[in-house]
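Pasting as-is:
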Amino acid sequence: MAASLEELEQRLSHLRTELRGAVRARDKAETARIRRALREAEAAWEHALETETETETETEPDSEAFPAEPPTPQTSATAGAPRHTERPAHGSIPIREQVHQALTLLGAPASPKLISSTYEAFFTESLVATKLASLRRDEERSFTAQGYARPYYICAALTHDRLVPARGLLALSTWPVERRIIGPLSPRTDFLTHAVGTAEQIQRLTTAGHPAPDAAWRLLRRFALTIPGAYDAAAPEPDLARVIAAAHAEAAVHQPEDGQQRQAAAQRARTQLADVQQLFGAAPMRDALRDASGTLS
């Protein structure tokens, strides 16, 4: 029988704890074994989540990236700071600016669904994820025609091996190439970066006397659920400092290897690719064959 989401989440948490110990002990063989087990468990978790999602009539935004959210504990009317439940709408903001704001907050390449969820959690207008389908292509055409005429472009994350666009991930042209490379460990390190960025934005709002919207807390809770030590189910909301500390602790386990892979790929990108390719990726082999022959047999 296939393992449940809860069982897989417990296994992931256990494996990450083991990995931290193996890295600290500098046991390379054990570290490699645990990383393989982690990748297998993460793949099984994704499959289990997709299977569960297909059976539901309604899904929350970005359900592919997060486990099901537990019920929010009830709080008294006097507990905690006042919360925003409604936000006034202002003038329409161009979609590329909406994406820029969300990616700046998240701090790492992200999927259209996560970008949309993040923007709607913190800002005043909705961002429809389906509208992002052609945005990157439009940005590439603009860059090809005008070069660096704009202060930023919505561009692609690049795969570490082939330097082609990473499927379904958007990034900012102002980020260095290393930050836009996606290696085997990058999805997890970027997830942790997203969690930290979300928590820090809530901190900034709170410090400025502007309580974060409920949707922002829900987004953070869904991040915290899969980070060991980040979430206390008995608390009414995630503790911001705890989430940030837990995310940094796990990131420290993955980042050395991930950073080396990104640096090596970025160096190849700088020496092998033109400026437009460094932002939007090298043409996949299928496209290269089409360009060379005019057709595909």
